[in-house]
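Data availability (excerpt). The following record was deposited with the supplementary files.
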Amino acid sequence: METKDLPAVEQLYAEARAFMKRIGNGGQWKDSWPPRERIKQDITEQTGYVVEQYGELAAAFACWYGDHAEATYNTIYDGAWLSDSPYAVIHRIAAKENSHAGAHAIKWVIQQYKHVRIDTHENNSAMRHRLFMLGFQECGRIILENGEDRIAYEYIGE
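Predicted structure:
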């Protein structure tokens, strides 16, 4: 992701928020997540990625890797992680509706890192279904810094 992508990424996130509201998940990103400052931070930290299809931006997401890559994953409730090894985390994934670009993004991360964690709101039926189809296992619940509850998933490849 580059600074020149910012307007298209913001539009993609707006479309994703509208889609989530339509499927009954209006509470996950509300009306403003992620804010422009967060997207800029992803660009600066080189953790923001895009997927292009037919010359247009079709998905955006953040990803990073390491020991304890995501602080909110240090404690898991009502379950357990499958492995304590270093992992990649995926956040803020949004894709154009019916493009399958979100699945391509997740597959790319899986190919790069083999051990991946992600979380989502329990009302995000589209993401929950996609994660199941891609081989992620539901591991329990995590609590975000703002106190909200999320379902935690993990993928361990070969």
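Summary of structural features: The chain has a mean pLDDT of 94.
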